[in-house]
Design brief:
- With 479 residues, this protein is an alpha+beta fold.
- It is built from 17 helices and 14 strands.
- The chain has helices spanning 6-16, 38-52, 55-58, 79-96, 104-115, 129-142, 244-247, 272-280, 284-314, 320-345, 359-384, 394-398, 402-408, 416-430, 433-443, 449-459, 463-478; strands at residues 19-22, 25-26, 59-61, 68-70, 146-149, 171-175, 179-190, 197-201, 213-218, 224-228, 251-262, 266-269, 348-349, 355-356.
- It is globular.
Length: 479
């Protein structure tokens, strides 16, 4: 089967009938028709249609079947492959303005990274690299969609938490002839319940074998429950909620109620060392960071575009502080572009023949974005000022006072309906419930920013700077 269409994606998700709970009730009927999911499922479908209609630039040919496979599944062998992947990722990101952090290319990249790292599992106890490779082939040939989960519930996050008797984190409670039995919970499966599959794996730090695993299961597996947070989709038109009506990705708590994971879907289990090494030494980090940074570049371009359009619409570009704020975003954007290109330029082929982008510039790019994004949204708020509150709905403009509002809320060469449309766009991105979630999401994307800074500190190669100091100290000694 080649890459799927949007219609095929929607039919598959509706047919799955995953167990999704919202506000105390189980979601019934076609989930694609539910108000909380309709917009994001349609947007995801449109991504698949975009890929399907642009096979030449967004797919590659399967070496086993000849099928057209989405480039986000590609395991790169050359720098050209890395560039092709980036262009495809950014084309999808452009469609959503980078607002879909869990567009299909993210998890496709994760699975490709896992498949490219199977050598780490070779010879390890309770590890099955051949199963992982088989599943990678199975998934890419069917253009499956994925969510994932690996975050433990926040019941106790102190350094001594491992000493407590665990009662919340999903764990292996049994191993039988059919597979693993998993019981407990995991946090934050974004798009939970609206993807074909869910990948579950252990991040480094597991203290017991029961918490060390990696597998993938269909979203409708018996005993698997997705519990949704409050939806940020509001009643109103696309004019009123231009982003949240289309790109609100639901976040879910995942409950494993004695879920059976068949052995053929288990990639590793009961091996703490292998689970940690697979994450740390595998290609998960460089591959996913490359995808994340590529998407965040497009999101920054969206922020810059909105900020500049506000400046032009209300003619505040002559003020020095306004120019300075716009330049902040420009500098951030150009630095991020340079870091991604540096990561590709410094990519190296590893022992298995895979082209791996340099981690250091990607870590810095993603960590920098965690700091910059809240500032960039603040800049939009500062530029819009009271205009961010003077945003009547579409129904106001079609009502009795519509003509007056169109006049009194006009901008420079822009009538009121158009100026408000821009400001509602800015408001939905920065100040609505959807916008606040976007900010929190980017603050912690790929982990705690402080811990990421620590990682950069310890991995940074500073021999050249140290040698330069030695050079001048030696000069002084010679004199």
């Amino acid at each position: 089967m080649p890459v799927i269409t949007g219609e095929e994606y929607i039919k598959r998700i509706d047919a799955l009938g995953a167990e999704v709970w919202m506000a105390g009730d189980k979601v019934k009927g076609n989930i694609s028709e539910h108000p909380a999911f309709r917009g994001i499922i349609q947007s995801q479908a449109e991504l698949y249609d975009l890929q399907h209609s642009n096979k030449k630039s967004m797919t590659f040919s399967s070496e086993t079947t000849g099928n057209a496979i989405g480039l986000s599944y590609l395991i790169p062998k050359t720098r050209g492959d890395l560039e092709r992947r980036r262009r495809m990722i950014q084309r999808w990101a452009w469609y959503s303005g980078g607002l879909m952090g869990r567009s299909p290319d993210y998890m496709n990249t994760v699975l490709a990274a896992f498949a490219a790292s199977v050598d780490i599992l070779d010879g390890e106890e309770n590890c099955y690299p051949e199963r992982l490779l088989h599943f990678y082939e199975y998934a890419r040939e069917r253009d499956l969609s994925f969510t994932h989960t690996f975050v433990n519930p926040q019941s106790n996050r102190s350094k001594l938490a491992f000493m407590e008797e665990d009662v919340t984190n999903a764990r292996i409670i049994d191993r039988n002839r059919e597979g693993l039995i998993i019981k407990g919970a995991k946090l934050l499966a974004t798009q939970g319940g609206i993807t074909d599959e869910m990948i579950v794996f252990s991040a480094p730090g597991a203290q017991e074998n029961a918490h060390a695993y990696g597998f993938s299961i269909p979203s409708n597996t018996q005993g698997l429950k997705f519990v949704c947070r409050e939806s940020f989709v509001c009643n109103g038109s696309m004019y009123d909620y231009p982003f949240s009506s289309r790109f609100e990705e639901m976040d879910t708590i995942v409950i494993f109620d004695e879920v059976l994971v068949p052995w053929e879907r288990v990639f590793l289990h009961d091996n703490i060392r292998a689970a940690a090494q697979f994450y740390v030494k595998g290609k998960f980090v460089p591959f996913t960071l490359h995808q994340i940074a590529s998407r965040q570049i497009i999101k920054t371009e969206l922020l810059l575009g909105i900020a500049q359009r506000i400046v032009d619409t209300i003619q505040i570009g002559e003020y020095q502080h306004v120019q300075s704020k716009i330049v902040e975003i420009m500098k951030g954007l150009e630095v991020m572009k340079a870091l991604v290109l540096k990561a590709e330029h410094e990519a190296v082929v590893d022992a298995s023949g895979i082209m791996v982008p340099a981690r250091q510039p990607l870590y810095i790019s993603v960590n920098q974005f965690q700091e910059m994004y809240p500032r960039f949204t603040e800049i939009i708020e500062l530029l819009g000022a009271s205009g961010m509150m003077s945003i009547p709905k579409e129904s106001d403009f079609s009502g009795q006072l519509g003509k007056q509002l169109d006049h009194f809320l006009q901008g420079v060469d822009v009538k009121g309906t158009d100026r408000v449309a821009l400001f509602r766009l800015a408001w939905d991105l920065t100040m609505s419930s959807f916008g606040s979630r976007q900010t929190l999401y980017e603050r912690f994307f790929f982990g705690d920013p402080v811990r990421l800074s620590q990682t950069i500190y310890h991995m940074y190669e500073n021999k050249n700077s140290s040698d330069l100091v030695d050079h001048f100290l030696a000069k002084k000694a010679d004199s």
